[in-house]
Input
Amino acid sequence: MTGPVVLPLAAEGDTVSYVVVDDEPRYRTELSTTDGQGALEMVGSYPDVESFLAIHRQPCHVIVLDLCLNRATGDAAVLQGVQAIRTLTGLGHRILVHTADERPEPVARCIAAGACGYVSKYHGDAAAVALAVTEIARNGQVSSPVLTGAIRELVDRCRDVRLSETVEETLVLLGRGLSDKQVAERRHISARTVEDHKRKILEVFGSDMEARGHGFAHLAHDLGVSRGDLVNDRPGTRPSTGLIRRALEGFWRRRPATRPGLPSPRKHRDSPVEAGAGRAEDGGPRDMTGTAAKTGSDDDRRAEHRSGDPDTRATDARPGPSARPGPGQDQH
Output
């Protein structure tokens, strides 16, 4: 797939070119900068990713991307969320997520799919967006404490557990109000298997569901996995834990490149050789089709072997506050 050209990292004093992709016209407006930030130029604005890819040809440094782009229609075919970010970063683009969605799990998973920064429409203002665009254009990612701190706070609010594909499919159908029998018939599985899937879901999310008085419908929404929602990639065949934190902790644990001659921290966006590749949700490389490359360690593979059949073993529990995420690689 080809698309609009991506400019190399901007030097101090260079005008930063950006594009806005947002289905709400009020956000498709010019940004102003404060003293010392340099000039910003909006070189395009579009209501959806498809229009941007089909029409836009002027090079840019950054795309300011809203996550939910099907509010008006609810059309699940609209390119948005995780798939939108992977498509754009696969073409080399640097993405700033600018969203009004306050659900930590789906928003964090979208950022972990390859975005370079995040600003909330509720908690950030136009000045924060301008700062984020400037830092991404010059450094390859946001670097100011106020911006990296927002990502860290988002990660801290996540359960950071992705169910296996088969359990997630059951959750989505339960979330639509189907009975166990209806789910079993729809999925061509036994009612006993549906009960087992529900047990696995409750082992991980049961305490939160009980505390909030939520059922399976609310949980599917909170995780963003329903049809037409933001987490629209396929989960792995096994439960996965800690992928969001591993993918995003680099925002607050390392300093980005500060000169155009240095590689971007997420260098596949700036390297012509890697422009067609994306980044796995756990930060690992992806091949040209978007499939996670098999770069796991021997320990990773042994851990997968021990995990057994995902349909017969419980989902991983969330690590405690002081625990470090274990090894593992998402499978998409």
Remarks:
- The radius of gyration is 20 Å.
- Residues 258-332 have pLDDT under 50 and may be disordered.
- The longest strand covers residues 40-46.
